[in-house]
Amino acid sequence: MSANPGLHRFHGGLHLPDHKQESLTRPLEHAGIPDQIILRVNQHIGEENEPQVKVGQRVLKRQVLARSSEFVSAPVHAPTSGIIRAIEKRPVAHASRMSADCFVIEPDGIEEGLEPPSPIGSAHRIDKKDAILRRIREFGIVGLGGAAFPTAAKIETADRYNIKTLIINGAECEPYITCDDILMRSDPLKVLRGIASLQLILQPRETLIGIEDNKQAAIAAMQDALDKLGLDNTRIVVIPTLYPSGGEKQLIRILTGIEVRSGQLSFEVGVFCQNVGTCAAIARAIEENEPLTSRIVTVTGPGVRNPSNWTAKLGTPVSWLIEKAGGYSVDEPMLVMGGPMMGLELESDQIPVVKATNTILVLDKRDQPTVRECVRCGQCTEACPAQLLPQQLYWYSRSRQFDHAEQYHLFDCIECGCCAAVCPSHLPLVQYYRFAKGEIWEQRRKTWKSDQSRRRHEFREARIQKQKALEEERRRQKREELARKKAAESGDQSDTKPPAANQDLVKAALERVKARKKSADEAPRNTTDLTPEQQRQIDEADQRRRQMNKDKQ
Amino acid sequence: MLILIAVLTLSFIAGSFGLILGYAAIRFKVEGNPIVDQVDALLPQTQCGQCGFPGCRPYAEAIAKGEAPINQCPPGGENTIAALADLLDVDALPLNDEHGEHSDVPLVAVIDENNCIGCTLCIQACPVDAILGSAKHMHTIIESECTGCELCLPPCPVDCIDMLPVKQTLADWKWAIPQFRERDAHVR
């Protein structure tokens, strides 16, 4: 544990009432096997999975149910043994309130599992590195901090850069959420062994585990475990509690002082960030041969009777967890997946837990504030941790001037909700930014599609032109062929034209003949003073010559 | 004498600039009309011909020459007209409905494969080669390539092509602009 004087501060941020104690009074427990498991086919950011099983089929625990061969993807495994009752659209946690493909599994309760694969035990670092990466990929591990980005894809991308600092994110800055806190308290060694695997792959110079100072029990447990395990160049850094210190760019800034620029990846400044929950999942995959089929979920908020943390199988309906936590304590509960700042409102409690579900927050629907007009106070600008101008972004988004919003770096907004939280008019600012981002993305998709259509149309035009030219050439050749044939048929007749190739030769020959005739004509003839006798003889000779020529012909 | 020097100097300067400009005109000659490309980039590339020109590029050429108004593209709608008005610095006109109506929902052609007789007429009509098939074999439309131009509809002798709205998926869903009740807020 180091009281670090060299800590840095990011711009803005908020001190929020953390509401964490409520759910930390009870120990972490298993939520058990629900009556029905509704398992989303796609639980990660990236390419879509293909289902690998059929309706009616019996599946075993750890069996792969859906996968994709793409780089940015993570397979989904059966959380327990049972029968696939359906593969159909079910309501899921998504702002659109649309349904998505889900496996509906009826568990048989006996948890029969597949034979676990042989453990990773090669001594050579390179072999071991490949084996660990393959394990992370095949066991469906994604970032459990909330984004659900496939971890293998992230590590493999980072491995192409020179990673100097490995940052382990235990900040858990959003109010109400305690799943990482309770994980670090209850199983710090697993987190550290996961970190050891990451160190083996990425070979960083130092590893910093950032934990906010409102988690003293977790800090103590982690420090204790670190002393026991003894990882090289690894430190636990206690950081001041300030939302959103758990944002990737914010945590990098706090721990290293480096500001990741707009549009830059953290890898480019030599930093790789990973959440503590993901580290524990990596350790489980490597040491216990367990794919990612369960996670810790905090069930909390003023609307639930016994706020608590649960190890829940993926696909567990929210209603099952609420029941475990003593049921609703308000008449009109408002369900949120995630924290109060960045969470997603759920339309029903039949929605299942996915890999990205860290918290089920139950609020009272009646507590919603009324919205008024912007008074241009500028508090949002002071609170923004990304150093943006939220008010400008609001005006531009509202008036659909998306190009201006982009110039004001709309896409650097991490949607942390600080601006909306401080807004005295309670404007739903983040919703405006999401709206603007969606419109810009759609515009980009349209541009992409119209470019593609243009290319296809131009290609088609070019192809038709080429075909026409070829056709024309073919016709010309045919015409010539016909002409030549005709010429060959009537070859004896003098009035037929000789074929084109010989025309020049014929012309030359004719020229020669003409020239000879001419020279014959111009030959000196001493016929000016002939006697009648001579004239008569000449006439006779001419007569004979003509006769001869005639005979010849 | 002074006047002569002044005249000579000015003539020399004018002459040398003339040479530079003349050289630049040859060296940096722009092939084609760059405005055409810019206009073409703003058109939706549906290639439907509703504007009265055989494709988007001919319409772009006509606009660039000032021979056609900018409000003849129904697939592009008001957004395209606004973008063209912005580019060409002219007033935005309302869409001329003689050329058709703008639909907010993108459409895609779908062949009823039970009724298709494999005549290949639609394949010849498609401006972006989005229809797959050969003579006396069933045809199908590559949905991702279809621009929804409807040019395949008239040639079909058995009327087996329908225009259907493109289904929204989670991948292309987008957030709507926040809506509030008048009582709660003055935000429109």
What does this structure look like?
The complex is a heterodimer of chains A (553) and B (188). Chain A has two domains: 339 residues, Rossmann fold (3-Layer(aba) Sandwich); 102 residues, no CATH class. In chain A, strands 1-14-13-17-15-16 form a six-stranded mixed beta sheet, with helices on both faces. With 553 residues, chain A is α/β, with parallel strands linked by helices. Chain A is built from 16 helices and 17 strands. Chain A is elongated. In chain A, helix 4 crosses helix 6, helix 5 crosses helix 8 and helix 11 packs across helix 14. The longest helix of chain A has 61 residues. Chain B has 188 residues and is mostly helical. Among the domains of chain B are: 55 residues, Electron transport complex subunit B, putative Fe-S cluster (3-methyladenine DNA Glycosylase II, Chain A, domain 3, Orthogonal Bundle); 63 residues, Alpha-Beta Plaits (2-Layer Sandwich). Helix content of chain B is 33%, strand content 7%. Chain B contains five helices and four strands. In chain B, strands 1-4 form a two-stranded antiparallel sheet. In chain B, strands 2-3 form a two-stranded antiparallel sheet. Chain B starts with a helix and ends in a 23-residue tail after the last strand. Classes of the chains: A alpha/beta (553), B mainly alpha (188). Chains A and B meet through helix 14 of A and loops of B.
What characteristics describe this protein?
heterodimer; A: 553 residues; six-stranded mixed beta sheet; four-stranded antiparallel beta sheet; 17 strands; 40% helix; elongated; B: 188 residues; mainly alpha; 3-methyladenine DNA Glycosylase II, Chain A, domain 3; Alpha-Beta Plaits; two-stranded antiparallel sheet; 7% strand
